[in-house]
Amino acid sequence: MFVEMLEVRALMSVSPVDSQVAADRAQIKTDLQKFESDCTAVTTTLQADIQALAAADLKQDKTLAPLFKTFHSDVNSMLSQLKADNLAEGSAVTKDQAVIVAELEKIAADQGNKKALEADYIVLRADRIQLQNDEIAGLDSRLSTRQTDYNTLFNDLNKITSALASDTGASAALKADVNRFLGDRTRALDTLDGDLNKLVADRTKLVTDLTAEQNQV
After folding, report:
1. What are 172-193's pLDDT values in tens digits?
2. Distance CA 5, CA 15 (A)
3. DSSP state, 18?
4. Quick check: is 3 in a domain?
5. In 110-171, where does DSSP find H-type helix?
6. Is 95 strand, coil or helix?
7. Closest to 9 (Cα-Cα) out of 107, 192, 139
8. What is the pTM of this model?
9. Residue 203: which H helix or E strand, with range?
10. Total structural domains in the chain?
11. Is residue 16 reached through a cis peptide bond, with omega within 30 degrees of 0 on the bond before it?
12. Residue 217, C-beta contacts closer than 8 angstroms, at least 6 positions apart
């Protein structure tokens, strides 16, 4: 695996919900689907690139092989931190979802009691805002990890690029495959970073609209 797969969590829904909040949720679902699709596409492309590099005997190139080893070590380090970030977010979100489930059960028990239901829905909206805030905090944490580690990864890629230019022992096929990998990996980093930034922006908008909805009650 060469990229982080984002754990997709279902957005918990309850009526009544205004049209803007519903639209926000739909957009977030689209964002998650795009991120998942991009992860799959990136992984497929990079796996093909790695196979091509192996076929071109990258491991036998004394100049490039150590640089690729360092790059892959740095990628694995980033993925380990991203996994830890995701687990921390998952723990917070699981707690939030348990609170929401309990509130939904209270709403079911309070059917027929208008005053109690009004209070229940106010609490539910606040709980859902907390859920989204914890999701945003998790995404922000992963973005921070990526931004820090991307500097290292791009430095690794630049070293490979510089070494390739002066590597007289590399075959034409190996040079072509390395250049392809460099381009694909750079595009992958930029694409996934953009996807996560879009998710943060859209989840933030959902929090804003949920808060506005709550203030209208």
Report:
1. 999 999 999 999 999 998 898 8
2. 31
3. -
4. no
5. 114-166
6. helix
7. 139
8. 0.74
9. helix 172-216
10. 1
11. yes
12. 118, 121, 122, 125
